[in-house]
């Protein structure tokens, strides 16, 4: 387990505002109303020193462990309620044993895992290799349509066998050099868990257990007294959600929460905030199944229309950098040679006119779908993108959606008869390997892809079988090829997070914090009650 718990609250440096950023800010202010902070009171729990209170942007869509690769679910479930066999250190990228004690490739397609003894589930049942085998089979091989199946394993099934209580074998359809990394996404549940339906209240081996979930109000956790590892400092944890970033910040200031996620960049200079790289990349996914987005000239024009520097400076503060690819630096496959596309309105307009002259219906309305609470400033960013696309001659309407609705547009099967969609996405490659990104977002039939090419599909498959330097180069070349021949994405920014932290606690966020906020790593400040 990671053990860093000291606080990091150095103010993030302010990026200078460029002229284009000033103009963009003016556009957004004209097109959006002023935010009015609502009451921060209500179901926040009481400051008793024993309850760790966390305020999220939205209510989690589910607590089903096999959906924990979804950020809204994983931030509550991963490493708090349930745990995997293997965990990845987000700083070094190293794989460390957790519920497994070690692993070895014992045949070209088979890996053998040692299983930790003395571990008990929150319901009192002992954890064995049979539970690990069941959890993998349930998440990967079943008909549950778990997000982890598509995101991590694609269409491949696994052959799993509990050799005995302390040993597990996993056999893949083809040699897989990163299987232990993939298994770090499978949260272990008891073999008594329903194999045919997703659960509302999960049971795991983690340091906290679900005490209650009051829909629309709060999720409460109690410390798991059976936990096999070091006991967390706080006896209870309570999650609430507020969509307004200013309200989340005010809850820290007023002592109504100890941790608040996704604060506005304007809060960055406070000593109660901590900035951290979160491996998230924002982009517009352009649905190439529908005109006019089925024409590469129109997709390329949208890419050229985006003022990344202006959006970053005016709307995202110091918490982002312009992006030209779906994975940030530090991820295997990141291409250092790719530069973010520079805005060129003149060239973009010419491409739209050229497409229109060839009969492409460039006046057809494009719906730009964005998710409420995706990041601070998301609605303003959507409006800025709408304005920039309209400036090159396209007809664009913004639709702000809740999490459940956005997921319908994000994941296959995609909705039909909705017209051309430009979907604002935020992709977090918490695994640190571009193989997870390309299998999801670049494959022609990928779970989060709308189209592609056979040639690119072949290259994705070939790259996935490689390791080391060859793997790095193959995926870097793939990301460059997407930009040249497919242009399914207009990349926006590599994001950072801003966490609100009460002075009463000590916690150091890292690149995994946005996906799995580990409550056991939070400690009271010196002298605080707990």
Overall description:
By secondary structure, the chain is of the alpha+beta class. It is 27% helix and 22% strand. The strands form four sheets. Strands 1, 8, 9, 10, 11, 12, 13, 14, 15, 16 and 17 form an eleven-stranded mixed beta sheet that branches. A four-stranded antiparallel beta sheet has the order 4-5-7-6, with helices on one face. Strands 2-3 form a two-stranded antiparallel ribbon. Helix 13 runs antiparallel to helix 14. It starts with 18 loop residues before the first helix and ends in a 6-residue tail after the last strand. Mean pLDDT is 90; it is low at 1-23 and 25-44.
Number of extended strands: 19
Mean pLDDT: 90
Q: Which spans have pLDDT < 50 for at least 5 consecutive residues?
A: 1-23, 25-44
Radius of gyration: 23 Å
Major pleated sheet = 11 strands, mixed
Global morphology: globular
Terminal Cα separation, in Å?
Answer: 21 Å
Strand content: 15-25%
Question: What's the number of helices?
Answer: 14
In which range does the helix fraction lie?
25-40%
**Helix-and-strand structural type:** alpha+beta
């Amino acid at each position: 387990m990671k053990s860093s718990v000291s606080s990091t609250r150095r103010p993030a440096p302010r990026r200078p505002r460029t002229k284009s950023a000033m103009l963009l800010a003016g556009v957004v202010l004209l097109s959006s109303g002023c935010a009015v902070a609502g009451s921060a009171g209500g179901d926040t729990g009481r400051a008793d020193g024993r309850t760790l209170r966390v305020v999220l942007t939205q209510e989690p869509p589910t607590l089903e462990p096999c959906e924990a690769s979804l950020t809204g679910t994983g931030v509550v479930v991963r490493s708090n309620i349930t745990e995997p066999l293997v965990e990845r250190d987000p700083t070094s990228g190293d794989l460390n044993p957790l519920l497994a004690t070690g692993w070895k490739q014992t045949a070209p397609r088979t890996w053998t895992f040692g299983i930790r003894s003395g571990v008990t589930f929150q319901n009192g049942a002992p954890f064995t290799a049979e539970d690990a085998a069941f959890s993998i089979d349930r998440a990967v091989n079943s008909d549950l349509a778990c997000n982890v199946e598509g995101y991590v394993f694609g269409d491949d099934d696994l052959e799993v066998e509990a050799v005995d209580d302390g040993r597990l074998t996993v056999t893949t359809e083809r040699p897989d050099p990163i299987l232990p990394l993939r298994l770090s996404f499978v949260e272990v549940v008891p073999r008594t868990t329903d194999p045919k339906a997703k659960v509302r209240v999960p049971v795991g081996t983690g340091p906290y257990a679900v005490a209650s979930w009051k829909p629309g109000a709060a999720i409460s956790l109690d410390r798991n007294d059976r936990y096999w590892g070091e006991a967390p400092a706080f006896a209870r944890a309570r999650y609430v959600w507020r969509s307004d970033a200013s309200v989340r910040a005010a809850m820290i200031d007023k002592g109504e929460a100890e941790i608040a996620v996704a604060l506005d960049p304007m809060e960055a200079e406070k000593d109660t905030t901590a900035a951290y790289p979160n491996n998230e990349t924002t982009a517009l996914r352009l649905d190439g199944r529908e005109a006019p987005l089925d024409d590469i000239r129109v997709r390329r024009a949208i890419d050229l229309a985006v003022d990344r520097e202006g959006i970053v400076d005016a709307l995202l503060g110091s918490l982002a950098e312009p992006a030209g690819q779906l994975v940030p630096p530090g991820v295997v496959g990141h291409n250092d040679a790719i530069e973010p596309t520079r805005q060129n309105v003149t060239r973009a307009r010419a491409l739209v006119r050229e497409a229109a002259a060839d009969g492409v219906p460039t006046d057809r309305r494009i719906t730009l779908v964005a998710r409420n609470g995706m990041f601070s400033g998301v609605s303003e960013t959507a409006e800025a993108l709408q304005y920039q696309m309209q400036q090159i001659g396209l007809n664009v309407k913004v639709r702000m959606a809740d999490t459940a609705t956005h997921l319908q547009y994000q994941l296959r099967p995609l909705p039909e008869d909705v017209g051309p969609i430009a979907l604002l996405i935020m992709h977090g490659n918490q695994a640190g390997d571009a193989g997870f990104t390309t299998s999801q977002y670049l494959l022609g039939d990928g779970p989060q892809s709308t189209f592609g090419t056979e040639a690119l599909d072949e290259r994705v498959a070939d790259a996935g079988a490689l390791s080391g330097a060859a793997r790095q180069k193959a995926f870097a070349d793939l990301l460059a090829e997407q930009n040249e021949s497919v242009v399914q994405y207009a990349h926006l920014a590599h994001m950072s997070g801003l966490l609100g932290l009460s002075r009463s606690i000590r916690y150091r966020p890292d690149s995994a914090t946005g996906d799995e906020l580990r409550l056991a790593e939070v400690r009271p400040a010196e002298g605080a009650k707990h």
